[in-house]
């Protein structure tokens, strides 16, 4: 589905703005890394009963202030705040202020800020498919990853060109139950040769890594990922040239709701393998789910 914005210049301006905000938000977190007083639990999310730490809340407030400073004041959906009206601009910003909170609290340097922006359509809620631009900013020193629909993916200021002939042999996968684990086992069986399987604790970064060809694939069949987790990352992966499937592509951006299973394949071969593994294990395949 094409983004609702028609102007490539407007899209590029949004990409640059969101990349700046995400980068500054990541630096804010980096400067506070290891401060015990910021790791206390201060909230329980109504949408999923997960706990929010003080650093999550402060990071989200910081993002809102950064957006105001940039002059982007429409609707805002955050993991901590829910839906907030900042102003009358015809956009909605969707943010995860700290994707990888447990890593951050445990002094594991793998977490990110994820921000996506979509124009507000007339007559209906904005959907995941309406996202027009976004950024995933690693908290620890690495260039900000960003995209604009139809204009490609960027790492720092450079447009990404992915060599799809690479074979990283790294599978990023999240499972919780035996029937979900069977999908990963079946993928490995179909792949033959050796693969390393990892779950690194920051879905937005892992989706981006698979999209950039640094992992063979990303698979999450738990159904736990939410729009705030993936709104930027799945489109970044798609703009980088990867195949991306989201079970609930029309999930609303006005609620912190789950999007179902998510898969990212860095190659067509990996895409076919994920589809076969799902079907062989009794799950629906990928047909009709790709972005």
Number of helices: 7
Helix/sheet category: alpha+beta
- The CATH superfamily name of the largest domain is Fructose-1,6-Bisphosphatase, subunit A, domain 1
Using only C-alpha atoms, the radius of gyration works out to 18 Å
Quaternary class:
single chain
Approximate shape: globular
Query: In CATH's first tier, which class of the largest domain applies?
Result: Alpha Beta
Amino- and carboxy-terminal Cα gap: 8 Å
What helical percentage do the residues reach?
25-40%
Q: Strand sequence of the main sheet, in spatial order? A: 4-3-5-6-7-8-9-10
Strand tally: 15
CATH topology of the largest domain: Fructose-1,6-Bisphosphatase, Chain A, domain 1
* Count of distinct structural domains: 2
Average of per-residue pLDDT values: 92
The biggest beta sheet is recorded as: 8 strands, mixed
CATH architecture of the largest domain: 2-Layer Sandwich
**Beta strand %:** 15-25%
List segments where confidence is low: pLDDT < 50 over at least 5 consecutive residues: none
The ordered string of helix (H) and strand (E) elements is HEEHEEEHEEEEEEHEHEHEEH
């Amino acid at each position: 589905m094409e983004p609702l914005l028609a102007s490539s210049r407007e899209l590029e301006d949004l990409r640059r703005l969101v990349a700046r905000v995400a980068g500054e938000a990541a630096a804010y977190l980096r400067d506070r890394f290891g401060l015990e007083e910021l790791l206390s639990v201060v909230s329980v999310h109504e949408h999923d009963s997960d706990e929010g730490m003080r650093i999550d809340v402060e990071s989200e407030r910081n993002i809102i202030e950064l957006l105001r400073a940039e002059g982007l004041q429409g609707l805002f959906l955050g993991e901590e705040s829910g839906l907030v009206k900042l102003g009358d601009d015809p956009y909605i910003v969707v943010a995860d202020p700290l994707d990888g909170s447990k890593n951050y609290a445990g002094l594991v340097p793998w977490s990110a800020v994820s921000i996506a922006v979509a124009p507000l359509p007339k007559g209906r809620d904005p959907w995941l498919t309406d996202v027009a631009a976004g950024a995933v900013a690693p908290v620890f020193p690495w260039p900000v990853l960003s995209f604009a629909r139809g204009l490609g993916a960027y790492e720092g200021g450079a447009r990404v060109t992915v060599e799809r002939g690479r074979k990283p042999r790294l599978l990023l996968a999240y499972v919780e139950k035996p029937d979900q684990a069977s999908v990963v086992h079946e993928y490995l069986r179909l792949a033959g040769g050796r693969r390393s399987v990892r779950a690194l604790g920051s879905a937005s970064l892992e989706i981006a890594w698979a999209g950039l060809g640094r992992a063979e694939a990303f698979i999450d069949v738990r159904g736990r990922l939410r729009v705030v987790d993936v709104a930027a990352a799945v489109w970044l992966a798609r703009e980088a040239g990867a195949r991306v499937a989201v079970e609930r592509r029309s999930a609303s951006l006005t609620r912190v709701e789950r999007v179902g299973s998510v898969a990212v394949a860095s190659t067509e071969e990996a895409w076919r393998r994920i589809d076969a593994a799902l079907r062989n294990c009794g799950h629906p395949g990928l047909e009709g789910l790709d972005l």
